[in-house]
Every structure is written in structure tokens, then in C-alpha cells.
Write a structure and sequence with these properties.
Blueprint (H helix, E strand, L loop, with lengths): L22 H7 L8 H8 L7 E5 L7 H7 L2 E6 L2 H10 L9 E5 L11 E7 L10 H11 E12 L6 E2 L7 E5 L5 E5 L5 H10 L2 E7 L4 E8 L4
Parallel strand pairs: 1-2, 1-4, 2-3, 4-5
Antiparallel strand pairs: 5-10, 6-7, 7-8, 9-10
Helix pairs in contact: 1-4
Length: 226
């Protein structure tokens, strides 16, 4: 049964949407880079890897790398866009964390970890995962973690820009570039109670903190039986 992915442009079958082929514009100017904010930063700094290893899924242009690197001895940052990875490398080039960061070009659904991590981190990623790949995504997170490892993630509860597409077969939005080009992108907004319930069904215990009407952060661990 189709989940509606065919209704979106080719690269959007995962979550990377319209970045491919437009890396020069998106490298430093994409508004997703502004998703941080002091509340989210404080939440992440309250959840440090404590000297361990961190995997960041879809690091984009690397806005979180300096924070992760300050608390870890190794950060592996994965992203499908070579252009974004170049910007990420540039962003940390003069920072002490640069020697503790490894950049890997890969779509996350093709990524195979070469080690296990204490923490898996992702920001503004889950809402771009197609609904029928929700379980597959969280299986990847679990597969990358050490026993007792933790996940920390940040995402949106409501649109920050673009327009929702109520006629789409799966949750989607129309998003815009500065060139006025328009691209359809999967965008799934979860209510905190719904997300907690779905993750509990997959064997995760999650605590969600809503810091603004639009943004939340969450910490998740695997149940012992899972």
C-alpha cells in the first residue's frame, strides 16, 4: 500500500526535502538554522553526553556541533548533503571541538553505524520522517545506541514557515526558497501525548518539554525489556 511518498519530489522519500541541488543558497541561510533559541540550548546543555560519544542524525550546517563537542570526546555528524557538511566543517574550523567531530555523508536511512553511541541527537528531523517510516527511524536510533544509551531530540509542534497542504495524501507543507521557488515537503506535527504513546509502544520512555508554543525538546531511553 502506498503511503503517498510518490506524490512528493524524488529526494523527499526520506526527509532531506528540497536541499539537494540548492546547497549554495541553503548552506548558511536556511531558516531551519534558527530553530535553536536559548530555551532549547539550555535543554540540550542539561542533557550532556558527559564525555561520551554522540551521533547526530542530519546535522545540516552544524549549528549544534559546538555544543555537542563541548561535552563529548567524539561526535559523528551524518547528513546527506555534501554542501551542508562543508558549511558544518567551516562553522567549527576555528573551534576547539573540530578535532572531536567526524562528518559523514549519508542519508540516514542508508546509514550503518560503525560503533555504538552514548547519545543519539537530532533536531528538526522527526517531523520530516514519513509516517510509515516512523518505526524504522526509531529502530535506527535504537540500533546506534549502547545499552543504556539515550536519545535527545528537538522539533516543532506547529509550522514556523511555509503552508500546510491539507489535500496531500500524507502530512505535508509547501516551503519556499529565496528565489520564490516552491517545494512540497513531508511535515508531521505530533502532539506530545501522541508522541509519548507511540514511542512507548516501541519500547521507549520519553520526557517531552514544551518550551514555546511551537517548539519542544525531549529525552528518550529504551525500556529494559526492549
Amino acid at each position: 500500500m502506498s503511503d503517498g511518498l510518490d506524490s512528493l519530489p524524488a529526494p523527499q522519500v526520506a526527509f532531506v526535502s528540497y536541499r539537494r541541488g540548492r546547497e549554495p543558497e541553503l548552506g548558511l541561510t536556511r531558516r531551519t538554522d534558527e530553530i535553536g533559541g536559548q530555551a532549547l540550548l539550555a535543554g540540550l546543555e542539561g542533557f550532556p553526553p558527559r564525555g561520551g560519544t554522540v551521533l547526530q542524525l542530519c546535522c545540516r550546517t552544524g549549528m549544534w556541533l559546538h555544543v555537542l563537542g563541548e561535552h563529548a570526546h567524539l561526535v559523528t555528524a551524518v547528513d546527506p548533503s555534501p554542501g551542508d557538511l562543508k558549511v558544518a566543517a567551516w562553522r567549527i574550523r576555528n573551534k576547539p571541538v573540530r578535532d572531536r567531530v567526524r562528518l559523514v555523508a549519508s542519508d540516514i536511512f542508508d546509514f550503518e553505524p560503525d560503533q555504538f553511541y552514548d547519545v543519539v541527537f537530532f533536531a528538526a528531523v522527526l517531523s520530516y520522517v514519513p509516517p510509515r517510516r516512523f518505526e524504522r527511524f526509531w529502530n535506527l536510533v535504537a540500533r546506534c545506541l549502547k545499552p543504556g544509551g539515550r536519545a535527545f531530540f528537538i522539533d516543532e509542534l506547529a509550522p514556523g514557515h511555509g503552508e500546510e497542504l491539507p489535500e496531500a495524501l500524507i502530512p505535508a507543507m509547501q516551503q519556499f526558497l529565496k528565489t520564490d521557488e516552491r517545494y512540497r515537503a513531508i511535515k508531521v506535527f505530533y502532539e506530545p501525548d501522541e508522541l509519548e504513546s507511540r514511542l512507548a509502544h516501541l519500547g521507549w520512555s520519553v520526557e517531552i518539554e514544551q518550551e514555546t508554543p511551537r517548539l519542544f525538546y525531549a529525552a528518550a531511553t529504551r525500556a529494559a525489556a526492549a
